[in-house]
């Protein structure tokens, strides 16, 4: 029998499996499609919440821990798999920020470099930005990672791990309970048993747990993105660092591709890409970098984020069902928070001192009542 079953093969599920296996546990990871092909693939890869000063402190704590972990993780994956997840630490430029006072106060409190810069500084860094900006906020330490390649590297690492069994294209159909103890899951490929089960199902987590009578408020929130092919401009890329304006961002890749994202849509589990969103994304991209009007749009897609109240993920044991745990509800910050969120749960699973206080993320009855009153009682 497995020590652990993990349901969901996104970045959260794969990092969990890797850490547990490295600790000597036997792990089976069950994924209904192919690993890292949902939100982990569809996102942008900025290793920070978009406006970190607008988030609750527990989310900021997870984010800061993860940000410090990503450079070493990227190096390790290159060495062990030969796949480069392209971690780039080129900084972020914030345009038209209307709460600069709050941003600077947050930066001072957490000792994060963040400064207001002049137009000369801005256009020296990114000369092809639209004209007319007289200032910006500059966060020099921010990094980004090429999330599809991160997913490929994590999958390759797990596939080579002697203590990990990957079960892709395997649908979970139900759970096996003995009184109030979970003993395994029923799938399209038979029954898998384990001492403990961790649900990392992203936007599908709420649906999975509902069959057990657990009403976890995790819902799908659709996001659409596009990627441009951009030519080099005078021995540099058209855009070299992350740029953020009015909630939309540009993320450069090392090969000259440039992402624009993203929409926020309450469309249940609909993942269709729409013409209206494409036009809106193009308008946002051109408003930041007019040259993009001449560039080829290589791909336009949609993904589903796991939304949760206040953007706070649920990390920990599920009350009333022995052996069941969850790590889900990271909303727009799944990749941002993944190293810390998975480490935090693994610490609890292995009875280690946690990296930070796990209480804000627990699924206790009082926590669920406070964060989602309709579930009380």
From TrEMBL:
Pathway: Cofactor biosynthesis; thiamine diphosphate biosynthesis. It is an enzyme of class 1 (oxidoreductase). It comes from the Bacteria. Its EC number is 1.4.3.19. This is Glycine oxidase ThiO. Keywords: Oxidoreductase, Thiamine biosynthesis. It comes from Pistricoccus aurantiacus. GO terms for cellular component: cytoplasm. Residues 3-347 form the FAD dependent oxidoreductase domain. InterPro entries: FAD-dep_OxRdtase (IPR006076), FAD/NAD-bd_sf (IPR036188), Gly_oxidase_ThiO (IPR012727). The keyword Oxidoreductase applies. It holds the Pfam family DAO. One of its GO terms (molecular function) is glycine oxidase activity. Coiled coil: none annotated. One of its GO terms (biological process) is thiamine biosynthetic process.
């Amino acid at each position: 029998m497995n020590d652990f079953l993990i349901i969901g093969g996104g970045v959260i599920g794969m990092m969990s499996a890797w850490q547990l296996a490295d600790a000597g546990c036997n792990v089976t990871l069950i994924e209904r499609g192919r690993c890292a092909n949902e939100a982990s693939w569809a996102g942008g890869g900025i290793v920070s919440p978009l406006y970190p000063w607008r988030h609750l402190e527990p989310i900021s704590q997870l984010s800061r821990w993860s940000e410090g972990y990503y450079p070493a993780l990227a190096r390790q994956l290159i060495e062990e798999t030969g796949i480069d997840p392209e971690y780039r630490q080129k900084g972020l430029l914030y345009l038209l920020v209307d709460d600069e006072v709050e941003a600077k106060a947050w930066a001072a409190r957490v000792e994060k470099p963040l400064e207001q810069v002049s137009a000369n500084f801005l256009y020296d860094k990114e000369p092809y930005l639209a004209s007319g900006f007289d200032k910006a906020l500059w966060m020099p330490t921010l990094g980004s990672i090429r999330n599809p390649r991160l997913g490929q590297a994590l999958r390759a690492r797990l596939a080579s791990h002697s203590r990990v069994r990957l079960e892709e294209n395997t649908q979970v159909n139900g759970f096996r309970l003995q009184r109030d103890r979970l003993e395994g899951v029923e799938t399209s490929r038979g029954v898998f048993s384990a001492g403990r089960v961790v649900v990392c199902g992203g936007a599908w987590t709420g649906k999975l747990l509902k069959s057990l009578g657990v009403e976890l408020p995790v819902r799908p929130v659709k996001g659409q993105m596009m990627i441009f092919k951009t030519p080099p401009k005078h021995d540099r890329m058209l855009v070299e660092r992350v740029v953020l304006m009015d909630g939309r961002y540009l993320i450069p890749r090392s090969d000259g591709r440039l992402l624009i994202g993203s929409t926020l849509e309450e469309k249940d589990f609909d993942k269709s890409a729409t013409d209206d969103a494409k036009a809106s994304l193009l308008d946002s991209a051109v408003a930041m970098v007019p040259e993009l009007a001449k560039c080829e749009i290589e791909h336009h897609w949609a993904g589903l984020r796991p939304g949760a109240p206040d953007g706070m993920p649920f990390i920990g044991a599920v009350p009333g069902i022995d052996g069941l745990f969850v790590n889900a509800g990271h909303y727009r910050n799944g990749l941002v928070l993944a190293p810390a969120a998975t480490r935090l749960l693994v610490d609890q699973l292995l009875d280690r001192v946690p990296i930070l206080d796990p209480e804000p993320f627990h699924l206790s009855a009082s926590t669920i009542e406070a964060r989602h009153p309709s579930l009380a009682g």
